[in-house]
Amino acid sequence: MTMLNPDPDAALVERVKQGDVRAFEMLVVKYQRRIERLIGRMVRDVDLVSDIAQETFIRAYRALPQFRAESAFYTWLYRIAVNTAKKALVDMKRDPVTTLTALQGSDEDDETYRPGMEPTDGETPEALLASKEIAATVNAAIAALSEDLRQAITLREIEGLSYEEISDVMNCPIGTVRSRIFRAREAIAERLRPLLDTREGNRW
Amino acid sequence: MSQPDSDRASSESSRRILSALADGDATDGEAARAFQAWRDDAGARAAWHSYQLIGDVLRSEDLASEPRADEAFLVALRARLADEPVVLAPQPRAEEAAVAAPAVANAGAAARSRARWQGPVAMAATTASSTRGCGASTTGSSARRARSATRNASSARGALARSSLRSTSPISW
Description:
Chain A is mainly α. Chain A has nine helices and no strands. In chain A, helix 3 packs across helix 4 and helix 7 crosses helix 9.
């Protein structure tokens, strides 16, 4: 992969800059898991991880008009996440009572609550199980794909190749690459659907 | 699901475009349709999430998070984004050279400049009100989670504001 590959997020970023806040949500859905994992490596408290991730995206949204595409959007977002987490850690060290109290909120019906002492969504056995099930389902779905579809989505998602590069590797037109990747995603998503749909049957 | 065929068809063509957009391969026209689908089509939103989740899991299994957690995260963030001034970084047009610098307009200012920025501003304003409605309409456990996430988020905002973490714009709380 060359550095000349254009940022795949360029169209989304441009759209947000034109005032479409909903397009920013698409970037959030794309990067939230990676950002939370990154922050989770710096900060151990699971609740705090989510809060810092929220703050990261808010700061990114505010700073977006200044984003100049000299780096990829994700590189820029990654830096904001690291800085936001560092800042939160420094604040915690300097003033743990104020920071923790504020993070805890004024939750009158929650007197026994201590930050970091109860399992939260990110680490309950149920959530862990659900995650494992999702990973297993994706892997099984990939294994069940035809060779063409599996190769196309693997080259894109794991190797990070552009459609043009994949079309070179697979010796087929770009339109075919595009269609294979879509069909691969649809096939995997179809298998995931029972795991992903919430009880209301209407996510997002 | 009991969607009419026409919905299902439009939904599939939306998903095709979303898949291409996810890889940075959508044309301008397709991208515009994808943004529209994200706003209007719950199936398209779910597909975008699935595609992104699939990519994450293929790269690293420990990114296989429970989708309800992802949804709660977005719902909480939507509530905060609704309070944010609209981001505007317009391409300068000749008659607007004087105000071409990247600007962050608040809702009032945005409304005043509506004549010039009809499209994005009007849309952003609608979005702000509709996202509130969206947050309020969730039910059951996901609403509880969303509320809890929102509470966490807003208390974090308090802490972070106290420590001057927030950067630019004035916030009303």
